[in-house]
Fold these 2 entries.
Entry 1:
Amino acid sequence: PAAVTPASGSFPPPPAAVTPANGTPRPSPAAADKAWTRRLPDKAGGQREAPGSAASASGASEADTRQQEEEAERRVQKTLHEYHKAMTRYKDEGFRKPDMKAAKEITDKDPIQPRYGVIPGVKIGQKFSAKAALRVVGVHRAMSGGIDGFGSMPAYSVCVSGEYAHNDGDEEFTYTGMGGRDKGQHTMHQTRTAGNLSLIMNCEQNVPVRVIRQTNSTAGIEEGSDRYTYDGLAYVVRHWIEKLEETGGFEVYRFRLKRHV
């Protein structure tokens, strides 16, 4: 597939190189987190430049940029408030999965436009109550899977659940791929398809992913819960196949992700 480029036409030049095993320099995700944005639709259906984009950086003052950022934050908070209101209603009505029902209601009214890089209005460290809440603002669209990617293009995001030994660190960690399971148990090798193939494309094309961490597995899905935390952008710098003890010896795909703080 063709290489992915942002709405502005190209990724920004590397402000600080991160050199993986293959020697290809990659831009620092910390700097990129401010630069890779998309165009936001205005209420009239037109387009305006998102905070941090090339157009806004060249023509807008700091005050104008901050005003745009605050507007984007208000839109995110409004969407989350509408989601939680719908989720509570469905829960009170006895629906089995009120969060998923609420997410469908919100995204049916305002369809998600997939985008790479940062989501305007979402801050590093921001808490979310459920994957459904992540979905309605476009941070991570996959309701059950850990990889938001389907094999035809690079992945948009990954969700780190702590199910495997991910070798967490401040700047890098190892992520285990998807698949090879039946009813929660590993029964076969993982394959170079779906989300695994997407993350391989991220590595080959230097496309960053958003990282979400499950920081409180026992938290509820109500508003104010801190089950998930947005952790910024990271690059897939390496990938390989490995047999793990916790998978019963079946082969899994492993991905090394790295970012700068």
Entry 2:
Amino acid sequence: PLSSPLSSPLSSPLSRRGGRVASRLEAAKKAVIWDCDGVLVDSEALLKQAEVDALVEAGITGVTIDDCNRLFSGFAPEAGAANFEREFGKPLPDNYFRDQIANSRQLFKDKLEPLNARTVLKLHADGRQMVVASGSPRDRVLVCLEKAGIMGCFEKEDQVFTREDVTKGKPEPEMFLLAASKLGVAPGDCLVVEDSTAGIRAAIAAKMEVVGYLGGGHAQEPWYREKIAAFGIPVVYTEDELYEYIACR
């Protein structure tokens, strides 16, 4: 496993090994496309509990956090709604996702924790091309970036892509292809960091390299990790491992 520590965002032992990592970064051609929820911030566990609570309030019981994780995580709202109706034989309450999004903003401001902020800051300082491509609404993504302390890494035009920017969200590849186009790089010169099956499918469909990050609170159950491992892609479990992986690309 890759286990070297990141001691600080801008001055880590990794960057002082005789210039080895620095030289790798200079030679690297991969632009990094970050998913947001569950990758940049530990938001998925917060969202899933809120989703279960909202269903109970609407009189729909027997739906677990794991169910919401399987059916909603990484999917565009319309795909998540279809997944739910197919499994439970009933539609979601009216305006379910809209209400969840509205309620999540304050929840994030109060409780959200970063996951890979040090890695983002280090790569930004090294001049690495990076964008965010998230299925969440733009205003919530911006709250996440601000809460994680990495807003300054994505402040240029066309560095944040959300579901408002495309007609079809993940697992369709449209968002990733749009990001590559705006970056001016070929899909094959992009590295996507994802935590969900829908996001991984989208990256594969876009013909991009993808690494699975499973360090979020929602990604600890064996069934979840098995679903990601089934894609046969590289998988990392900590921020240190993720930095080492990206530094080699």
